[in-house]
Amino acid sequence: MTSHEELFGAAPEGLWAAPGRVNLIGEHTDYNEGFVMPFALPHTARATVSRRADRVLRLYSRDVPGDPVELDLDGLVPRTVQGWAAYPAGVAWALQEAGHEISGADIAIESNVPVGAGLSSSAALEVVTGLALSDLNGLDLAPDVIARLGQRAENDFVGMPCGILDQMASACCTAGHVLYLDTRDLSRRQVPFAMALEGLRLLVVDTQVKHAHADGAYANRRAECEAGAAALGVPFLRDVPFDGLADALARLTDDTVRRRVKHIVTENRRVERVIELLDAGRARDIGPVLTEGHASLRDDFEISCPELDLVVDTAGAAGALGARMTGGGFGGSAIVLVEETAAEAIGKAVLSAFDAEGYRPPRVFEAIPSPGAQRLPL
Ligand code: GAF
C-alpha cells in the first residue's frame, strides 16, 4: 500500500476513524425533528492527514482507483465536486462557511463501511474529515458540531437533503450502547445495549441492492412530510402527539400524505417503546416493535423493496425475534434480532431464500455496538 508520505511527500500528522451505523429504530424521523436510536458499527472510514503551507486540499481514496483530487480551499463551490471526494471537500467548505480558519491539507482515506448499503458510508467520510480538520487546526469542535457540519456538507455541498441521524451516530456513539437522540435539540443518552450478555445477536443483512430512484424518492418523502406538517399547522411532524394521531389523520385530505404522517407519528412512538423496554432490561421484547416498524415503512412510508421484505419475512418465519429495514430504504440493509443459538440457522434461511428467488447473495454479519469517531495512534 502506498504510504501517506509516498503519496504526498509529507509524513501524516495523525490518524482518525469514524464509523458507519445501523439504526435500531426511528426511521425518517430525523428531518421531522423526531427520535432516532442508532449504534456505530465496527466498520470505519480512516484518514491520515498532514497540513500544508498553501491553500490546497488534496484528497486521495485508497478504495477508488485514481490520482488525488486537488482542490483550492478558497474556491470550493457547492455541487461541483463529483463522487466520494465531495464529502470531505464539503466538510472543508462547511467549516469555512461556519467561520473557521483551516489550513490546506493532504488527506488519504480508506473505508470498510459498505457503500450503498444504507450503513452511512458517506457520513463516516464527513465525520472523519471534520474531526481530523478540527484537531489539526486547533478548533476543538464538539462531536455534535462536527455532525452538523457533516450534514451541512451533505445538504448544501453534495445536494442530498438528509437529516442528522447518520452524522450524529458516527460522531457521538459509544461502544456497547445505542444512542437515544432527540434530533430537535440533539439532546441524547447512551443506552447500554450489550446483546451478547443477554444471549442475543443483531445481524445485519446487506441486500447489496440499491434501487436507482433512491435519492429522488428520499427527497419526495421529505417533501410529503413537510406538506403533512403544513396541512396540520405544526412546525414538524414531531409536534403531532401520538394520542392525537387519529384526529390528525382525519384532518388530512391527501391519502399519500396521510400515510406518511401515520408512519412518522407511530415511528416516534416505537422509539419510545424500545427505549422503555431497554431501560427495563427487556431487550428481547423489542423484536415485535422492530417488525412493526418494518410494516410501517413498507406499507405507509413505501420505502421498502422485495429484497428487504424477503429478509424480514424469512427471518421472522425462521424464528427471529424481530427484523426491519434500516436506513434510507429502497435497498440497502435490514437488521435481524435473534437468539444467539438461532443466529446461524436464521442467517442460512435468509441466504437460501435469496438463492431461491434468484437474487444476488446478501452479506450477513453481526452488528456489534462500537465506538464513535476518534483519533487513533498512527
Ligand atoms: C438516510 C438519511 F441520511 C438520514 O438522515 C435518515 O433520514 C435516514 O436515511 C432514514 O432514517 O440515512
UniProtKB/TrEMBL annotation:
Pfam families referenced in this protein's UniProt entry, alphabetically: GalKase_gal_bdg, GHMP_kinases_C, GHMP_kinases_N
Locations listed in the record: Cytoplasm
Swiss-Prot/TrEMBL catalytic activity: alpha-D-galactose + ATP = alpha-D-galactose 1-phosphate + ADP + H(+)
SUPFAM superfamilies, A to Z: GHMP Kinase, C-terminal domain, Ribosomal protein S5 domain 2-like
Main location: cytoplasm
Domain of life: Bacteria
Residues given in the record as Mg(2+) binding sites: S122, E154
GO molecular function: galactokinase activity
Transition state stabilizer, annotated site positions: R21
Gene3D superfamilies for the chain: 3.30.230.10, GHMP kinase, C-terminal domain
Transmembrane segments: none
Residue positions binding substrate: E27, H28, T29, D30, Y218
Galactokinase N-terminal domain boundaries: 3-51
Enzyme class: transferase
Record's signal peptide: none
Enzyme Commission identifier(s): 2.7.1.6
Active site residues according to the UniProt entry: D166 (proton acceptor)
Keyword Protease: no
Family: Belongs to the GHMP kinase family. GalK subfamily.
UniProt xrefs under HAMAP family: Galactokinase
Protein name: Galactokinase
Organism, scientific name: Streptomyces litchfieldiae
Gene name in the database record: galK
